[in-house]
């Protein structure tokens, strides 16, 4: 569920990951003594702690919250600092202490002026895309994962189904390795595909007469916002004739209402009842399967289990820092130098740290330093969310000319044309007033291309030259599944046995990971590529010094955003007291 009133956002914790707020209020009043439910995930508390800039308010019953060890620590911390306030008479368990006033330390960026004038209508040259297979889950896996079949029971299974059942059990018990890499992720993606379809089936409606242009769906707002975001099309058939199928686009979802636009100019009879079947947008899954097909075709699995490589010399000289904050931050400087020099190549470089430590600033500075050294370099920036992509684009516009930056939006953003910032619209594939994917010849004129993980699949679909992008920055990579982070890599900067560009994984493994609906696949699909790699092989701390090797990984330590009191608990509980406020 997610609502917005002017400057107030209301929604689940996932909706606010990736964007800071001056004030965050967490309501825990629906938690029960027998179980905290979603609050039991420690990363949810950490998201709130690291995204609140000036004030964090937790509303709830301290006695209920104390059943969880982490919340008990947090409550003790708040009590020691006089941060607990009671409503009513039950104040005996906690001492009365003076109010603690937090200084407003937020640094608001200046507003960007918008222009609502209509852009010139032109007919741009469009990208030529190969057909993208549907990659539907097999009948066997759908039958095996049917809600009516509990705990993988083997009764009435064919031999093929039994073999698949054994394979899935092996994957879930042992996890991924280089030998089974492609088959492992293909199987888990199909499991997730089935789980999403099952979620949609719970919203399906039969014998509905109130369907013309506005479809009323009881209790629609109770479904996960992530599921609602996946809604794209509706299949409609008369109740008396299920074989006659019509389709509609979903234009808008509001409370319990869905606004529909019929395809093919179909007309519905308001006196007839219809069956309604909601269809998820499977484009992201199809691009993930496409990426895995390239991993298999080019034999790339080895690159996602990095081993030490021969060291080449790094030029540490000639860096004149553009951003003032970077001038005094040794961790950012080290990360930028090693990223620019491709120190970890062909292994991914990892840049991680909690919110407010300057990951985005480091990305932007690194891009500027790369282009200072070679103005012909091509860079792909891909993120798990549109918001993160837009933030990086805005910051790049402060230092680079507009003609060097290109933002690629999904076709769904055409419906939000009026809400997109004018400066971003002017450097994007929406600049002519309608959506299009630009021809590769047009993209060749830009130094930096920005898009989300899923949409990056168009580059492989268009058969882009594997040496076009020299660097691929994957921001918020801990928010995406491992297969989703393969989309901007496999088939984009790869050929047989080779990766041609420096990959930079950016994120914070202590924040919430990807949202997964398959209970069986969640254990592995909810672990991002960055999180899987960070404690293995070349990315681990040195046993004696307890430091990371800066050729492969950098942890940012200086927090520029949060008040030190808000940061204190999170620093101790999640970040080994290494953060500096």
UniProtKB/TrEMBL annotation:
Keyword Cell division carried by entry: no
Pfam family, one: AAA_11
Keyword entries, A-Z: RNA-mediated gene silencing
InterPro entries linked to this entry: AAA+_ATPase (IPR003593), DNA2/NAM7-like (IPR045055), DNA2/NAM7-like_C (IPR041679), DNA2/NAM7_AAA_11 (IPR041677), MOV-10/SDE3_DEXXQ/H-box (IPR026122), P-loop_NTPase (IPR027417), SF1_C_Upf1 (IPR047187)
GO cellular component labels: cytosol; P granule
GO BP term (any one): regulatory ncRNA-mediated post-transcriptional gene silencing
UniProt domain AAA+ ATPase: residue ranges: 345-531
Coiled-coil annotated spans: none
Record-linked CDD domains: DEXXQc_Helz-like, SF1_C_Upf1
UniProt cross-references to SMART domains, sorted A to Z: AAA
Record GO terms (molecular function): 5'-3' RNA helicase activity; RNA binding
Keyword hit for Repeat: no
Family annotation (SUPFAM superfamilies): P-loop containing nucleoside triphosphate hydrolases
Protein name: AAA+ ATPase domain-containing protein
Species per Swiss-Prot/TrEMBL record: Phlebotomus papatasi (Sandfly)
Source organism phylogeny: Eukaryota, Metazoa, Ecdysozoa, Arthropoda, Hexapoda
């Amino acid at each position: 569920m997610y609502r917005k009133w002017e400057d107030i956002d209301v929604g689940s914790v996932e909706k606010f990951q990736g964007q800071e707020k001056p004030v965050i209020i967490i309501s825990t009043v629906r938690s029960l003594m027998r179980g905290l439910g979603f609050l039991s995930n420690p990363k949810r508390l950490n998201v709130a702690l690291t995204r609140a800039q000036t004030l964090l308010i937790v509303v709830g019953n301290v006695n209920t919250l104390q059943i969880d060890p982490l919340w008990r620590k947090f409550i003790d911390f708040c009590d020691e600092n006089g941060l607990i306030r009671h409503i009513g008479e039950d104040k005996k368990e906690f001492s009365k202490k003076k109010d603690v006033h937090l200084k407003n330390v937020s640094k608001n960026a200046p507003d960007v002026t918008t222009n609502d004038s209509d852009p010139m209508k032109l007919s741009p040259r469009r990208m030529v895309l190969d057909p993208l297979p549907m990659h539907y889950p097999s009948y066997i896996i759908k039958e095996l994962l049917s809600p009516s079949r509990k705990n993988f029971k083997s009764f009435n299974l064919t031999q093929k189904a039994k073999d698949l059942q054994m394979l899935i059990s092996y994957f879930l018990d042992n996890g991924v390795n280089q030998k089974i890499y492609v088959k492992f992720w293909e199987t888990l993606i199909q499991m997730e595909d089935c789980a999403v379809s099952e979620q949609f089936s719970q919203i399906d409606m039969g014998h509905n007469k109130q369907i013309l242009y506005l479809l009323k769906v009881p209790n629609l707002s109770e479904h996960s916002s992530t599921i609602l975001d996946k809604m794209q099309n509706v299949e409609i058939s008369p109740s008396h004739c299920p074989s006659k199928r019509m389709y509609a686009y979903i234009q808008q979802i509001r409370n319990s209402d869905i606004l529909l636009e019929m395809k093919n100019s179909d007309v519905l009879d308001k006196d007839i009842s219809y069956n309604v079947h909601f269809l998820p947008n499977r484009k992201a899954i199809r691009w993930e399967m496409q990426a895995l097909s390239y991993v298999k075709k080019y034999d790339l699995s080895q690159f996602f289990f990095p081993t030490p490589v021969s060291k080449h010399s790094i030029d540490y000289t000639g860096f004149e820092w553009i951003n003032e904050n970077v001038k005094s931050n040794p961790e950012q400087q080290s990360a930028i130098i090693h990223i620019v020099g491709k120190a970890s190549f062909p292994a991914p470089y990892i840049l991680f740290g909690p919110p407010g430590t300057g990951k985005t600033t480091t990305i932007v500075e690194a891009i500027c330093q790369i282009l200072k050294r070679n103005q012909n370099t091509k860079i792909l920036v891909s993120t798990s969310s549109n918001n993160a992509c837009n933030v990086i684009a805005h910051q790049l516009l402060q230092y680079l000319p507009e003609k060097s930056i290109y933002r690629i939006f999904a076709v769904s953003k055409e419906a939000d044309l009026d809400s997109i910032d004018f400066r971003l619209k002017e450097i994007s594939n929406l600049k002519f007033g309608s959506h299009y994917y630009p021809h590769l010849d047009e993209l060749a004129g830009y130094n930096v291309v920005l898009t989300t993980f899923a949409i990056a699949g168009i580059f492989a679909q268009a058969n882009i030259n594997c040496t076009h992008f020299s660097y691929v920055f994957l921001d918020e990579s801990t928010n995406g599944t491992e297969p989703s982070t393969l989309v901007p890599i496999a088939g984009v900067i790869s050929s047989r046995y080779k990766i041609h560009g420096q990959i930079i994984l950016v994120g914070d493994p202590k924040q919430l990971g990807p949202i997964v609906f398959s209970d069986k696949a969640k254990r592995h699909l909810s672990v991002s590529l960055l999180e899987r790699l960070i404690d293995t092989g070349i990315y681990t701390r040195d046993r004696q010094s307890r430091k990371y090797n800066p050729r492969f990984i950098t942890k940012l330590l200086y927090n520029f955003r949060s008040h030190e009191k808000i940061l204190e608990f999170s620093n101790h509980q999640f970040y080994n007291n290494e953060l500096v406020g």
